[in-house]
Amino acid sequence: MIETVGLVGVGTMGEPMGESLLRAGFRVYACAHKNRAGLERLLARGAQESGSPADVASACQLTITMVPDAPQVEEAIFGPRGISRGARRGSIVVDMSTISPVASRSFHERAVQSGLEMLDAPVSGGPARAATGQLTIMAGGEQATYEKAEPVLRAMGTPTHVGPAGMGETFKLVNQIIIANVMVADVEGLVFAKKAGADLALLRRVLATATASNYLLDTWLPKAWFEDRHHGGFALDLLRKDLRAALDAGRAMGAPMFSSAQSYDLYDKASTNGRGRDDYSAVADVYEQAAGTKVVE
User: Fold this and answer.
1) Active-site positions?
2) 250 and 285 co-located in one domain
3) What is the pLDDT of residues 165-205, one digit of tens each?
């Protein structure tokens, strides 16, 4: 039974995930990737600090990485002070970052060569559901490894074993492809409605019972756009990074990504306009500038 869990990366998602692990009774050893503030708050709640990913792994049966992208995952696991340098043989590495499935499969192979077991287990739900331990967790890797790690994953949300190495990342990128394109469609429709002089509150009530109803329009945008004016939420630059990983994987497989390529260009333009740290609904900035109107005054 796993009792000690390591956490490398205590940022917007890593911090609340660490809190969920502590609430579930796990002993948590953590080190920051960049965000020291999140680590300090987690230490105040009972986590213990380790100086490097190698030090974290030396104290733990399972170590989680939650960092921005594949280069950071590689450094955290295989770098000079990485997990593979300190982990005991047979320890489990669970990468919960969102990265390319191609990179993830490569990391699985290298982990096995280092005497480790590995899962790729990216999450969906954002900081709010991370804080309540209600994340959707998509795990790729060996069934036996998943069964050993499952109690840890359940402390943070609802895990599902979705297939072999890299399949967790594939499932997550499908989610990102869909939300990226649906957000663009919602924004385009709302800006169109604003220019036409429509009552947006009435429009949303009507669409809630129509075939255009969707989670982003019904639940996400009223908070992220209309109330918070794109502050907080899920950073546009993170979705842009995920969409780029999906496009790269699509090219490698020969899978057409026509809509996603156009959506990526819009998110890229919004990022260039300085909206990269805002919620990804800030892609509306591109439409509002082109239309010469503001949906939310």
Assistant:
1) 172
2) yes
3) 999 999 999 999 999 999 999 999 999 999 999 999 999 99
